[in-house]
Amino acid sequence: MSRPICFVLDGRPIEVGDAPASTMLLDWLRTEARLTGTKEGCAEGDCGACTVAIARHDVDGAVRVEPCNACILPLASVDGCGVLTVEGLGGTHPVQRAMVERHGSQCGFCTPGFVVAMAASLAGGPVTSHAQACDALAGNLCRCTGYRPIIDALRDASDTLHPAGATTDCLEPTRSAVGLPAWIGALPARSPEPLSFAAGGVQWHAPRTIEAVDALLAETPDAWLLAGGTDIGLWVTKQLREPRRWIRLGEVDALRIAAAGTTAFEIGAAVSLADAFALLHTDWPEFDRYWTRFASPAIRASGTLVGNLANGSPIGDAAPVLIALGSTVTLRRAAQPQPHRRELALEDLYADYRVQRRDPGEWIEGVRVPRRRPGRVVHASKLSKRFEQDISAVSLAIAFDEGEQLTDVRIALGGMAGTVRRAGSAEAALEGMAPTLEAFERAGAAIAADFAPLDDLRASREYRLAAAAGMLVRFWHARYRNEPAGVDELSLLSRQIASGRLDATGVAR
Ligand SMILES: Cc1cc2nc3c(=O)[nH]c(=O)nc-3n(C[C@H](O)[C@H](O)[C@H](O)COP(=O)(O)OP(=O)(O)OC[C@H]3O[C@@H](n4cnc5c(N)ncnc54)[C@H](O)[C@@H]3O)c2cc1C
Ligand code: FES
Ligand code: FES
What is the pLDDT of residues 283-334, one digit of tens each? Predict the structure, then answer.
């Protein structure tokens, strides 16, 4: 072992020298640290019972605090971090008082997770709207209390902690620690020595440079590259799999950079989903609503954009948008004397179900998303059974240049085939056409020529085809008739009722 895993737990410095690489933080907290306030519900990032707050240094040295699902977070990945559990909150945090006063707890099993998620959310700023409160709690489930008292408690605590009520965006990562114990603000810098150890025949490496990642991968091409671990964590907790070697990307500062260039956004392989979405917001605010439907704040804080693309799920939510925007990935492989690097259009990365056009040893260094050009129209929508924290049945993204005729039309769909891919016939049906309802209906019908979707428990083949066509047509109604579209249906309806355009039952006046 190079050195022990070092972190600060509820203000106490901790060194762990004997944990196997696949030990999850939750198991260690409950069985070794005997901090049993943090609960296990699902062990797959879905219920929030295991929520802790993680404090870590950004590349610029600032400390950020984020909610995290301890059940799928390998213990070794908190090396250099601060871990705040419900015990560490100490019983006097305003969210705890508000939960009591609002009767936000019945059996209490979910309560520690809610309390920590709320404290982490309010550390960065107030919650100023119902939608923002719902997003802050999207990763936490309660089976008995009901959510209204919990949301009320969050808003009360927000008023207590942020009396001025300045507005923040729920997609923005938290970079202050209002209401949290003082030790978080004084988090020691990470050890200068990279963490590397073997236990029970399994190796863990957290290199600090891209070249070190190359070298480790060249030795063991089948090592698991760990980005945020929000997919991999489940392979361990649910499928009981274990690799011979883990290589964690999160300590490589060069991969943690998300930058806005003049022609493209450059997003490194260790940039979290939350940071990537915040950067994309600069040019593409239309996608904000879609991104808030991506998992929960805790998953968006740990999971990475590149991890989502590398996992290559046919129902991954980032790929349709990034393909519609014409993004490319930078693939990289160790080679002498120079590493081999190549740029590949994202849509060309996916060959078939779980088959990618990556050579052995090639990994993804980053993704490049073109900046917006004037006149470009974009839209994305996702269909799933729940609004938040749910897997897509079908997702659609569209981009085009708008004029009297539509040009450079790009449509990408998820949930319709073994990979996310473009809908060539639907694109052709719109290319060069005026933006009429008939043109969008024809494009919707053409989707049936592009895809032969599967039936599965999420949706039937017919449903997927009809839904995808409906998403295009609904987008037309939203853009050209200002009528309800997709994910914003309810809020648009209520806005139209409030403005007097519709009566209280939703009928046009
Ligand atoms: C509760 C929950 C909700 C979720 N909700 C959604 C959702 O709404 N939409 C959605 O699309 N996904 C969702 N996911 C899936 C997951 O969060 C995303 O796919 C996430 O972006 C994965 O990123 P990661 O950094 O955690 O990847 P990891 O788990 O670290 O890695 C995923 C895969 O990519 C590989 N990999 C990672 N980085 C690289 C790289 N640079 N080069 C090559 N290979 C690499 C890994 O080896 C692994 O095979 C959800 C997951 C959970 C647990
Ligand atoms: S135990 Fe359910 S999210 Fe971790
Ligand atoms: S209070 Fe019982 S699960 Fe939430």
Answer: 999 999 999 999 999 999 999 999 999 999 999 999 999 999 999 999 999 9
Distance, CA of 127 to CA of 393 (rounded, Å): 30
Residue 205: give the domain boundaries. Answer: 194-372
Any residues with Cβ below 6 Å from ligand 3, and which?
105-111, 142-145
Closest residue CA from atom 2 of ligand 3:
107
Task: List the structure tokens of 248.
Answer: 């964690």
User: Is the C-alpha dihedral spanning 273, 295, 288, 135 positive or negative?
Assistant: negative
Q: For 381-431, how does the pLDDT look when each residue is reduced to its tens digit (9 = 90+)?
A: 999 988 888 889 999 999 999 999 999 999 999 999 999 999 999 999 999
Residues 176 and 240 in one domain: no
Lookup result for tokens 């290589």: 247
**CATH code for the domain in which residue 24 is found:** 3.10.20.30
The secondary structure of residue 268, as a DSSP letter, is: E
Ligand 1 site-directed mutation target among 308, 313, 350, 359, most atoms within 8 Å of CB: 308
Ligand nearest to the CA of 150: 3
> Which residues are bridge partners to 24 per DSSP?
74
- Whole-structure pTM value: 0.93
- Give me ligand 1 centre to Cα 179, in Å: 31
In this structure, the answer to whether residues 170 and 281 fall within a common structural domain is: no
Question: Of all atoms in ligand 2, which is nearest to the CA of residue 48?
Answer: 3
